[in-house]
What we know:
Layout: E1 3-8, H1 13-22, E2 26-32, H2 35-44, E3 49-52, H3 58-68, E4 72-75, H4 82-87, H5 89-109, E5 114-120, H6 129-142, E6 150-156
Parallel strand pairs: 1-2, 1-4, 2-3, 4-5, 5-6
Helix pairs in contact: 3-5, 5-6
Amino acid sequence: MKKTVLITxxxxxxxxxxxxAYKDEYNFSSxxxxxxxxxxxxxxxxxxxxxxxxxxxxxxxxxIVGQSRPDIIIHxxxxxxxxxxxxxxMAAVTNNIIGTKNVxxxxxxxxxxxxxxxxTDKAACPTNIYGYTKALVEAMSMDSSTDKTKCICTRFAxxx
Length: 160
């Protein structure tokens, strides 16, 4: 029986790459706030269950996780553009830190077995808002594991 994977930010580069690479091995669900990109993902991968929502909305997030019942959450949703994070620091904090806290808290509450949070090389010795938010995300992820939910973090360099 295939395991179910929920990807937050599933319409992004990393989410789509996971789906493309492992579509025959897992049942995928995607959570994204970008309606146009969700539509494109649904057309390209009709087998993927697509949810519209925002990780900042804890109530909607809990509803989606409860409905999809994932074995694994791959958390890629975040503000990732350094210049936009610099110009909009509160939005970066809200999305990257509070949104990640919501993902981790809901996963623990609903006993999702594994959460993989993605980070960036910019979290090492951060020099900008994006890097600082991701450094905190890494610490939060590592601190959230329980007996029933393992939370791990992986760091990516520039993915192009």
